[in-house]
């Protein structure tokens, strides 16, 4: 019978606490591991020495997978050791049921060892420990790129809202010539002169040379110029508005460059290509969902995948009150992408639209009906990825 070497790590921002134990519950080593190259190197040397001494298979559990655990978590997987992430909420409940005399990092590390020893016997221990399946470099890169893109999109949205509010107060007539303050042609127009006040003197020939401005937009600008008026703060708020416009232009270029990178990565990803076979997915959403999933082996069934994607609310009812809530374990990035996919999916697939309409007829709100359809699509996605097959449109009865 294979011996197991249990390694528990209580993650800290500067120093981690490590406890090493055997199947019989004996604690054979305890030490602090500074989060430095030397400290991490010493960690692996000590664990490897026990691994060889006891001829045991190493299983590592750590609190706070990701975050401060990086890059220790990826290095553990690179060693070929099993890695388990400890669900902090469920671990807290475990400690309430089986309390310790005090709470310290050393005590918590030993409690993790108890969990690992019990994981094959006690269902609650299995719920606390979640095995981390390795994710290849392609999907790690895709995750970094898609998350970076989302951050830039949020930044562009925030700056655009701020610029629109400032334009409304400094030059309301100028804002009225466009429906969206972050239109490319409008941004180019805002930055074509060194100050906003000089925009009312730009001639038609010069307007037509600005990228994105044609005859129609030039006519709108000239109509505004005839009655152009600026509020007194334009001298000091104008440069701020133009700086925001230039930043939005930079963000547009950066987002477009990331879109090109995502398209290349999606072509190389088997998971993303499977997702692309389902109507509703595009390069960006396929890249986001595929990279956040990383490896379908991380999920034991479609229900756990649905919870992770944020489309399986938990029942929260009491007495006459009927309600639901989203679990804390959801991935908000994947959830947002999945809801976008669902809306596009039901716009092109008649059976999905009919399913949504039935839910609405039952009294569900738009979001509830959309999430119900997304829950159904996740069942299909899980089957597609597990069985390595593409999406097939459902047959429509006469």
Describe this entry's structure for a reader.
With 398 residues, the protein is α/β, with parallel strands linked by helices. It folds into three domains: 3-132, Ribonuclease H-like superfamily/Ribonuclease H (Nucleotidyltransferase, domain 5, 2-Layer Sandwich); 138-266, Helix Hairpins; 280-387, no CATH class. 57% of the residues lie in helices and 11% in strands. The strands form two sheets. A six-stranded mixed β-sheet has the order 3-2-1-4-5-6, sandwiched between helices. A two-stranded antiparallel ribbon has the order 7-8. Strand 2 (15-22) and strand 3 (27-34) form a beta hairpin. Helix 15 (332-348) crosses helix 17 (366-387). The longest helix has 35 residues, at 234-268. The chain is elongated.
- Counted by DSSP, the helix tally is 17
| Helix proportion | 55-70%
CATH class of the largest domain reads Alpha Beta
The figure for the number of domains is 3
User: Mind telling me which CATH architecture of the largest domain this is?
Assistant: 2-Layer Sandwich
Amino- and carboxy-terminal Cα gap:
60 Å
Radius of gyration: 28 Å
Mean pLDDT: 89
Q: How would you describe the shape?
A: elongated
The low-confidence runs, each spanning 5 or more residues with pLDDT under 50, are none
CATH superfamily of the largest domain: Ribonuclease H-like superfamily/Ribonuclease H
**Count of extended strands:** 8
Biggest pleated-sheet summary: 6 strands, mixed
Q: Which structural class fits the helix and strand makeup?
A: alpha/beta
Amount of beta strand: 5-15%
CATH topology of the largest domain: Nucleotidyltransferase, domain 5
